[in-house]
Amino acid sequence: MGKKKYATKLKLTTVLHSISGLGTSHINGFLESLSLKSSTRIESVNTSFVHVLSILIRRLSTLNDLNFRYKILRFHRIMGTYRGIRMRQGLPRHGQRTRSNRKMARLMAVKSKNLF
């Protein structure tokens, strides 16, 4: 019983932060679109607001999922090309020389590998 009372006293922003993929800017945008303040507590929110909020969150999560799928698809598309092979081997992909600057080429390849 005590936990339930404590949960209703939490701020809406605190609860929304626990959902993965929701940052402060998304949360503030949601609350602004529902004309709620960031200091709003859970106990003062109507069920209609909760329903609209769940729709907004669902739409955002599908957008994040689509962005992730596109990134993976793009990455897999390059893997069969010359650039992808050089990427897997840890060598430079943009025509840099490897005969005299092998260490630097490897270092640059490792740095660019961490971007994906």
CATH class term of the largest domain:
Mainly Alpha
| CATH topology value of the largest domain | Helicase, Ruva Protein, domain 3
Mean pLDDT: 76
User: Biggest sheet, in brief?
Assistant: none
Count, helices: 6
- State the secondary-structure class: mainly alpha
Task: Write a structural description.
- With 116 residues, the protein is mainly α.
- It folds into 2 domains: 1-76, Helicase, Ruva Protein, domain 3, CATH 1.10.8; 79-116, no CATH class.
- 65% of the residues lie in helices and 0% in strands.
- It has 6 helices and no strands.
- It is elongated, with a radius of gyration of 23 Å.
Keywords:
116 residues, 0% strand, mainly alpha, elongated
Topology:
Elements: H1 2-8, H2 12-17, H3 24-33, H4 47-78, H5 82-89, H6 102-113
Give a quick summary of the entry.
This protein is mostly helical.
